[in-house]
């Protein structure tokens, strides 16, 4: 697994497909959190939203690194287990999101004026992990493994991201953002945010299973 993750990292660095989602993340983070003040939960909701969009795009790029013929070679080299290759791509996306998460936690503190507590930081971690899980899940479901045509994949990804962000009260993303925007005390949000994180993990597992099932049927 480690070798596959290293291979995926090396390939994405070589092809530079990470550049566009990274620039999007930085741009959204800069626009949404610069010169903020007051309670931290709304600022961390903004940084989590930026990571959500970035993780979706980055995952789609990671899942599309290899052409079908090259992917078949990688699967054979990994012992014929296509699930292992899929999990390596997901692991690469998660590790990338963890790096971006650190920046998302610290950047608002650097550019704004906030009274920081441990609860704020824990809430920021929960929010960004939730958004990363859901973003990666959507990226996996809208990848080449499921959609043979890129146009259908793009439309589906945009629809799912838009729905997750703006469908009022729908967990985990919109519900979490609503709570963070209306409740300034981070300590009161840790338990609900933990629930949203658990839902996000279930969504990631379910979408991964669907993608693997479709890919296996095609192979």
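Q: What amino acid sequence fits the structure above?
A:
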């Amino acid at each position: 697994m480690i070798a596959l993750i290293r291979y995926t990292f090396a390939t994405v660095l070589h092809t530079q497909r990470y550049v566009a989602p990274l620039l999007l993340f930085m741009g959204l983070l800069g626009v949404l959190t610069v010169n903020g003040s007051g309670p931290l939960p709304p600022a961390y909701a903004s940084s989590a939203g930026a990571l959500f969009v970035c993780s979706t795009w980055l995952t789609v790029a990671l899942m599309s690194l290899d052409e079908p013929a090259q992917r078949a070679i990688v699967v054979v080299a990994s012992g014929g287990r296509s699930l292992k290759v899929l999990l390596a791509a997901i692991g690469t996306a998660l590790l990338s999101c963890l790096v971006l998460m650190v920046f998302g936690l610290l950047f608002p503190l650097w550019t704004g004026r906030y009274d920081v507590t441990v609860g704020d930081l824990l809430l920021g971690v929960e929010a960004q992990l939730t958004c990363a899980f859901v973003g990666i899940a959507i990226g996996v479901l809208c990848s080449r493994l499921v959609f043979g045509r890129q146009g259908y994949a793009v439309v589906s990804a945009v629809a799912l991201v838009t729905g997750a962000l703006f469908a009022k009260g729908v967990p985990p993303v919109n519900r979490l953002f609503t709570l963070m925007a209306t409740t300034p005390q981070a300590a009161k949000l840790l338990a609900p945010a933990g629930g949203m994180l658990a839902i996000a993990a279930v969504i990631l597992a379910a979408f991964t299973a669907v993608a693997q099932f479709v890919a296996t049927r095609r192979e």
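Q: And what stands out in the fold?
A: The chain has one domain: 2-218.
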